[in-house]
Amino acid sequence: MSAAAPTAARGGLRLRGVSKSFGRGDSQVTALGDLDLDVAPGEFVAVVGGSGCGKSTMLTLAAGLETPTTGSIDAGGKVALMFQESTLLPWLTAAGNVELALQLRGVPTAERGALARQLLGRVRLGRHVDKRPHEMSGGMRQRVALARVLAQDAAVVLMDEPLGALDAMTRDQMHDLIEEVWLDAGFSVVFVTHNVREAVRLADRTILMGARPGRIIHEQRIQVPRPRAMESAPCVALAADLTQRLREEVARHDEADYFEI
Ligand SMILES: Nc1ncnc2c1ncn2[C@@H]1O[C@H](COP(=O)(O)OP(=O)(O)OP(=O)(O)O)[C@@H](O)[C@H]1O
């Protein structure tokens, strides 16, 4: 774990010999094959890999939404998910969406309103609690989604391209916010992204996945002190190395496809 590890680290995730196949016979797809992954309590792991290599499948399994074909998955506490789309209920305000998560967690009615406002304050939406999703920008909606994650009081947070639809400036702001919230809350994060620089900006460790079947082919501990600037020399150098490895992996499959044809 990095020197800037959260004070009250919790969560953790362990995948052992996890494989996942979809379909049967000729149409069977082995999305993941014999994957081992350990995420320490409070650790922030970023996952990159070519399209279709099984990143989302890994998160879906880790969240317990699908069962693995083989292997075991153990999460050290409650798991919350965050996606590229905020998946807010459109008829509820920002506060209403967060209150719903609090209700599902069993927080008493009388406490929900104040707690929802407090959580929205933590993601800098204190002045927008009464806005509905259509009245908010994409970045604001993702901040509500982050507040909803906090409302779930999860120990493991799985993020699937959560910033993929945002412009570069908003994305930068979200990096700062996600880092701040994570350091404060101490949960483990598995963060899937196509943006290599983002992975290096945020993670204690980056993981590169290869395809067919999906598996971990490289990992790198990121020891650049926080807070990091994506454009700083050490971040750029680490991102360049990861990009090169990703390119080689993607090219290997393109070539395989070519010869299969
Ligand atoms: N429910 C499903 N039924 C059949 N095949 C599936 C299913 N879910 C995923 N797959 C297949 O498993 C493989 C891995 O898919 P997955 O979505 O996990 O990849 P990914 O790395 O997240 O891709 P991307 O980066 O494009 O989002 C792909 O070949 C995909 O078509």
From TrEMBL:
Assigned keywords, A-Z: ATP-binding, Nucleotide-binding, Transport
Protein's UniProt keywords contain Transport: yes
Domain of life: Bacteria
Any one GO molecular-function label of the UniProt entry: ATP binding
ABC transporter domain span: 13-236
PANTHER family per UniProt: ALIPHATIC SULFONATES IMPORT ATP-BINDING PROTEIN SSUB (PTHR42788:SF13), TAURINE IMPORT ATP-BINDING PROTEIN-RELATED (PTHR42788)
Protein name per its UniProtKB record: Sulfate ABC transporter ATP-binding protein
UniProt source species: Tessaracoccus lapidicaptus
